[in-house]
C-alpha cells in the first residue's frame, strides 16, 4: 500500500508541513495522537521509546513526556494544548524541557496545528509546525526532525495494524 507522505520546509514562513496518510479510521488515528497510553506505544523514532509523566488533553492542558534512548538518556518534551476540536483538529505549543517540566529556552519551541481528515477508508493527518525564526527551523532540521518523523510515523503504521 502506498500511503501519502509529504514533508515540506518553507523557509520564508519558518514552517514544516507534514502530511501523512494512515490505513486506519480518523477516530483511531485521533486516539493515537491524543491518549497517553497510545502515544507511549509509538511516539518516538526507533529505537527510542516514549513514557508519559503526565497528560491532560484539554485546552490549557499539557503532555509531559520523555523519549528514551535504549542506551539510557532521556529527552524530555512538553506540549501545551491550546485548542481542541475532537477528531478534526488541535493546536499546541511544543517545547523541550527537563524531567520536572521546566522549558529549555536554549532549544526552539514551535506552534503545532494538527488536522485530521478522511481519505476514503484512511485518515490523513496534516501537521503544520511554525517556528519563531528561520534559525530555530534550521536547528530542528539539523537535529534530524525529518528522519525522526519518518521513523516515528512508520512506527504508528505498525501500531495501527495491532489495533484493528
Automatic annotation (TrEMBL):
InterPro entries: ASHA1/2-like_C, START-like_dom_sf. Residues 24-160 form the Activator of Hsp90 ATPase homologue 1/2-like C-terminal domain. SUPFAM superfamilies: Bet v1-like (SSF55961). Coiled coil: none annotated. Pfam families: AHSA1. Belongs to the AHA1 family. This is SRPBCC domain-containing protein. It comes from Niabella ginsengisoli.
Amino acid at each position: 500500500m502506498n500511503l501519502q507522505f509529504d514533508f515540506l520546509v518553507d523557509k520564508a514562513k519558518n514552517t514544516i508541513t507534514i502530511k501523512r496518510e494512515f490505513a486506519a479510521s480518523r477516530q483511531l488515528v485521533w486516539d493515537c495522537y491524543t491518549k497517553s497510553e497510545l502515544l507511549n506505544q509509538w511516539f518516538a523514532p526507533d529505537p527510542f521509546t516514549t513514557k508519559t509523566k503526565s497528560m491532560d488533553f484539554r485546552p490549557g492542558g499539557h503532555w509531559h513526556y520523555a523519549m528514551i534512548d535504549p542506551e539510557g538518556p532521556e529527552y524530555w518534551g512538553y506540549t501545551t494544548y491550546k485548542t481542541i476540536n475532537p477528531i478534526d483538529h488541535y493546536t499546541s505549543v511544543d517545547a523541550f524541557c527537563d524531567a520536572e517540566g521546566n522549558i529549555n529556552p536554549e532549544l526552539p519551541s514551535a506552534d503545532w496545528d494538527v488536522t485530521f481528515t478522511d481519505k476514503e477508508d484512511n485518515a490523513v493527518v496534516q501537521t503544520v509546525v511554525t517556528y519563531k525564526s528561520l534559525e530555530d527551523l534550521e536547528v530542528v532540521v539539523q537535529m534530524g526532525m525529518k528522519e525522526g518523523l519518518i521513523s516515528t510515523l512508520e512506527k504508528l503504521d505498525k501500531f495501527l495494524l495491532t489495533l484493528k
